[in-house]
Design a protein that fits this description.
Layout (H helix, E strand, L loop, with lengths): L2 E5 L3 H13 L3 E5 L2 H11 L3 E5 L7 H10 L6 E5 L4 H9 L4 E4 L4 H11 L3
Parallel strand pairs: 1-2, 1-3, 3-4, 4-5
Helix pairs in contact: 2-3
């Protein structure tokens, strides 16, 4: 069982992703902004991160930049309602393993988590 950090400022979005992750048998922790996400990553050492692009304090891109600066190897999937290719490309350049559009499809997220954690 893995520990998955879900970062989104919208409770409904966090709840939807949490349900998918829980159905896979993993534990979850949550953060509602970029600063809280970085703090949880440092303190809790999650195995995987689901990171919304548009969050307060530090946005998803800024969080990815900080993780890259710290040579953090935790797999991160970006989740966004933004469908612009430039946004997607920036997330991938900064180390996200994938960029998913909202609402997240359970099968795709499941495959990304399982592949990243070698399950």
């Amino acid at each position: 069982m893995a520990l998955i950090l879900i970062v989104d400022d919208a409770l409904l979005s966090r709840s939807m992703v949490k349900k998918i992750v829980k159905n896979l048998g993993h534990s979850t922790i949550e953060a509602k902004d970029g600063e809280e996400a970085l703090s949880k990553i440092e303190q809790e050492k999650p195995d995987f991160v689901c990171l919304d692009m548009l969050i307060p304090k530090l946005n998803g891109i800024e969080v990815l930049q900080k993780l890259q600066e710290e040579n953090c190897s935790i797999p991160v999937v970006m989740i966004t309602a933004d469908t612009q290719e430039t946004t997607r490309q920036k997330g991938l350049e900064l180390g996200a393993i994938s960029v998913l559009n909202k609402p997240v499809k359970a099968e795709i997220l499941k495959e990304l988590i399982n592949n990243s954690l070698n399950l």
